[in-house]
TrEMBL record:
Entry's EC annotation: 2.8.1.12
Enzyme class: transferase
UniProt protein name: Molybdopterin converting factor, small subunit
Pfam families: ThiS
CDD domains: Ubl_CysO_like
Keywords per UniProt: Transferase
Amino acid sequence: MAITVLIPTALQKFTNNQASLDCTGNSVGELIESMESSCPGIKSRLCDENGKPRRFLNFYVNSEDIRFLEGTDTPLKDGDEVSIVPAVAGG
C-alpha cells in the first residue's frame, strides 16, 4: 500500500530534501511510524511526547483535516495523499 506524504520545506532536512515520500500504514499513526523508520528523527518533529501531532502542524488526508476525522487513528488506503502543513498565524 502506497501513501504519498507531502513534506513541508522546514522538515525536508529529515527526508534528504524530498518534498514527498511514499510510505505505508493503515492509519495516520502507523504512517508516522513508517516515516520515522525511513527518516529517523522526523517523528519528534511531528509529534509531542504523548505521540499526538504537534499543535502547530496540521495533517490532512485527501484534503480532510484529521482533527475532524479520527485523529491519528484516521484510516488510510492505497493511493491516499497525506499533507503535513505548518500552522500559519497572522496579525
